[in-house]
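Dear colleagues,

As part of the handover before I leave the project, I'm documenting each prediction I ran so the next person doesn't have to rerun anything. This entry is a single chain, and its sequence is reproduced below.
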Amino acid sequence: MNPLVWRFSAALNPPSLSDNASDAQRLTAALGNRALNIPLNILRRLPAYLRDNNFNIKGAIACDRCGHRIVSLGPERLYGVAVDIGSTNVWGELIELETGNVLGKEVLTNPQTRYGADILTRIFHSMPEGGGEALHECLVGAVNAVIILLREKTGISRDAIVAVVIAANTTMTHFLLNLPVNNIPVSPYIPVVNNPGFQSPAALAIEINPDGVLYMFPNSGSYVGGDIVSGIIASGLHKAESPSVLIDIGTNVEIAVGTEDWILVGAGAGGPAFDEGISGIGGRAAEGAIYDVSLDSAMNVRLQTIGGSAPSRICGTGMVSLVASLFESGIIEQNGALIQGKRNVITDANGTGFLLYEDGIRRHIVYQTEINNFLLSKAAMFTLLYVMVNTVGLSFSDIDRYILTGALGTHIKARDVKTLGLLPDVPEGRIVHIENASLAGAGTLLRDRRLLNDIDTITGLITYKEMNEDTVFMNELQGAMFIPHTELSRLKG
């Protein structure tokens, strides 16, 4: 274990008339670190602590922007929190730093969703004077709420938490730091900062030890943030000898393709179009959400819901499963058109749709227009992947691993993504899943500070591809709107 914050002990030479070095100089000399930073709060406590303990000192030291810094005197245990700030959810994981053990995990809905489900809506909300402050405050509140939940469930004090590592997309990073986001969505798509690095938790009002450290993963561009860099750490893509692809499917789709020698990253629209953004019955993956749909030989609909309760909505995974099942059962054509006369295909005042569920109280229908919008989102994701791989002169057969992560990517079935053409036609064994690679990468850094060097290496390897004005993407998009594609050769290696 080489955690981001670690304990030390030292025996200092007591002062005398012949040795009148200051207490801070004495500590710095004992630790052999001339660049040691000792915060004011620690300096105020240091004289009494040294004399109460006969100049034998125990403390905690951390990496920070300037080198190393004392963060605590006399700690018995050290804890850190890994945080993944997504556009929809905020995840937190409490880790004991000296063992690496996970003591708890919590998730809350990102309260910024009250300002809009998608990032662009929130950016526009922040542009008038005072709007950004509101988005900043509610995001800080969400991070603190997750930390407090973890503390309450484990009985760990605020001051025992000495480190927070945060992975977030570029816009969420800016909102957390209360930086203007006006230039992110407009050409030439420029963020204020790409590598915020170490920040003061006290300055951001994050409820941990005020002398602790807060690290934020670097962004790679306007729409590829620290979450994808953290995911690269978790997946080991930056150490791969053969090309691999990391696909983070959440509110946005972020893709990294690369090896130990180079990495290309890019992003496009995704997540909400697969759940609440596409269907009137769409919603987030929570209790009662349909996450799997199948049809038996008699065309009876079989549903599975989160928690096993009566269906209340359909989440993104359920939409992927539904459309794949409709196509495999011959209920929709290659262009997604529902076939009249097929079982459960109905027409009402809202148009033609597929009756997914009814129980006398609720009636859930997915309409033709919603299937069309789903296919547009599906096409955008595949085309992004196709363009990224082809940009570096590779074909799909050259890719060793397809690593899926994110709120949607973690749970969709390899069979469904291949049926729909979300991914190319490759052996299922090359498709792997990592549950929340962004959170996993943040936790990995808490356990091993040496990865700070890996992050520097990754940012040096990355090339960011801006997709907003890419003509190849627009030319390829139309063909991918069919199931699985109008040109099957596009799905091959």
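The longest helix spans residues 131-154. The chain is about 30% helix and 25% strand.

All the best with the project,
I.
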